Structures are given as C-alpha cells and as structure tokens.
Write the structure tokens for this entry.
Amino acid sequence: MNERIAQLRAFKSRSEPIAVLTAYDYSSARLLDEAGVDVLLVGDSLGMVVLGYPDTTLVTMDEMLHHTRAVARGAHDGGGKALVLVDLCFGSADTPAEAVRNATHLVQAGAHAVKLEGGASHVAQIEAIVAAGIPVMAHIGMQPQQVRIEGGYKIKGKTDEQAAALLEDAHAVEKAGAFGLLLELVVPAVAATITASVGIPTIGIGAGTDCDGQVLVLHDVIGLYPWFKPKFATQRADVAGEIQRAAREFIAVTKRTP
Ligand code: KIV
C-alpha cells in the first residue's frame, strides 16, 4: 500500500485529524506541502476558481492532467510528503473501462490516488480502478458534478431515507475497496454516524467536525475568491485584497501618481 495512504489509515486509527486542501498549480502545491498539509486535492473545483467556469461539469481531462502535472512538480519540490489526490472529472468515469483509462492517465501525470463522485452507483468503477492498482476515494453527499440535475448545491442527509442511503453508499464504497470517503454538505450527525461505522477515513467539507479529516478549497481559506464565500469555510487570509493593494501600488508608482 502507498505509504501516504497507510498513514491516513493510521491517522484514523489514532484519531488524529487529517488536513486536506486543494492545490491547482506548482507554487500552491509546493507551499502547502512545505506547510505540512496531509493531502493535496487537485479538485475539479479548479474549473470554477481558476478557470472561471460556472460549475465543474465543463472541466476536461486535459485540464485535470495539466494541473495535476504542475501540482505533482510542486509537491515533489516541497518535500513530497503529501498525498496528491486528483478528481476524475465529469464524464471521465461513466464506465469501469473509462474510469480505469482516465485514472491511469492521472497517475501518469503524477497523481498518487484519484477521487470519484458517486456511491453505490459507482461500485463497478471503484472495483475496476482498485483492480488496476490505483487507490480511489469516493465522494458522496452533495456531488457538485450533479448540479445541473439537482438544480443547486443541496445539503444531504436531512431525511431518514437520505441518511440511510448515505450510510449504504459508505458501506458499498468501502466494500468495493475505496481507501477513503469524502462527505460533502452532509448533515453533521449523519457524517458522524458514517465516520464511526466505516473503517476507512472520512474527509468532510461542510459536514461538521466529527469526520476523520477536513478539506477546504484553498481559495476560500486564503481569501483568493472573494466573489463567493461558503458559510462553512473560515477565511484565514485576504490574498485578494493583498493582490489588489500591491497592484494599485505598482500602478501608482509606474504612472507616477500620488
Ligand atoms: O473539487 C473539489 O475541490 C472538491 C472539494 C470541494 C471537496 O471536490
């Protein structure tokens, strides 16, 4: 087993929280690896915060590969301690064969593991990816790639039926061989129940504090995407403000205006 994945399991068994941030380029990956983040997620959220798409469904495999190569170089030069986890983007894993082909391309670009949106519905893809020797994390709860079908980003697990379906998804993906489980916008009590009932680490986003780890989009943490601020993400810096301050200072000096 990949030593970084073994470490995530060890973190769960000794109840040590796992810190995950997204990274999309060389410098952010290098800085985050040097800072000690456990997992660098090359999320397809890059489509929104880096490429300016309205949602993640427009992201292509070529774009994921391009950003994965940059992150892999940054993580390597940062010391290479973090696991580089990369999203299988919309339409890239509709069949087990496609999932294996695209997961293989991501590994060739520098991914240590891949992430796939879907639960029980994607067991065949998860089994095929694992059989190909590639570690895979499943992503359940709110699945951003379903936004066009769902008509928005909705909290999951509010009803008993939804909670039971999520628990079923969690057990199905664990049985299929997923090494971890991402829980997005899942009611905290349901996320806590899932976390206690699976052996694999759970990573939450907007899913309360009782998951085995937490993931956030880097831009939300450092204040680099001021046009949308999710309620669950604490902003810890104002990089957007600093960029504009420095740019205005440069403009003023260049134009010799007071
Ligand atoms: O694409 C992404 O960055 C993600 C996180 C929001 C969990 O999947």
The mean pLDDT is 97. The first strand starts at residue 18 and ends at 22. The domain at 3-216 is CATH 3.20.20.60 (TIM Barrel).
